[in-house]
Design a protein that fits this description.
With 201 residues, the protein is an alpha/beta fold. Helix content is 42%, strand content 13%.
Length: 201
């Protein structure tokens, strides 16, 4: 086992299937986290939560810092963070720059924690896949700003000195809502993220 990757994201990390009546998860073999674990030596922990935005309130950030303390004793932990889609969806008039600023504030708080500053946990930032026009994406702002997230997050990652991947470049297929990955999308994401994290091996 190479170590542990903590996948911290929203519904696309959780593996939400919006085409089911109850909004269940895709089967593990069709979720990118499950595929990644089956095809690598890493232990993958899925910490995706539907509707999650970048932690930005005091209580949200404190809770995330508490989670750091629990995760720091895992085997060679890497904390992958892929958030920002819900921030654009839920915050009226939010831009990619606004979202990146919120992400940088969150990362700054995490990096001040001993678990990260000591090197026990490695942070890795992923810009979410782009939104497409659909049932949830019916305004130009969402379509365009989701396409700017990668460049804005790249600047944040460079300033903070952490690893970075832009999933917005992968043309991930989404379902009717314009947001959630299809099963094919999960497989494409898993294939691409494996290629991006070869440095972890």
């Amino acid at each position: 086992m190479a170590g542990t990757i903590i996948c911290y994201g929203d519904s696309n990390t959780y593996g939400y299937d919006p085409c089911t009546l109850m909004g269940d998860q895709y089967p593990e073999q069709n979720r990118w986290t499950g595929i990644l674990e089956s095809e690598t030596k890493w232990k993958i922990e899925n910490h995706g939560i539907c509707g999650r935005c970048i932690p930005h309130t005091g209580s949200q950030i404190r809770f995330a810092c508490e989670q750091l303390k629990d995760w720091q004793d895992k085997d060679a932990p890497v904390w992958m963070i892929m958030l920002g889609t819900n921030d654009l969806l839920q915050e009226q008039q939010f831009t990619a720059k606004d979202t990146a600023q919120r992400m940088e504030t969150f990362l700054k708080k995490l990096m001040a924690e001993p678990a990260v500053s000591s090197g026990k946990i490695t942070l890795y930032l992923i810009a979410p896949a782009r939104m497409e026009y659909g049932a949830w994406v019916d305004e130009e702002r969402l379509y365009q700003e989701s396409r700017q997230l990668g460049e804005e997050y790249k600047k944040v990652a460079e300033r903070r000195g952490i690893g970075f991947t832009d999933a917005g470049k992968w043309d991930i297929p989404v379902v009717y809502d314009g947001v959630h990955f299809s099963e094919k999308g999960h497989h494409i994401f898993a294939q691409n993220i494996q290629e991006e994290i070869t440095w972890l091996k």
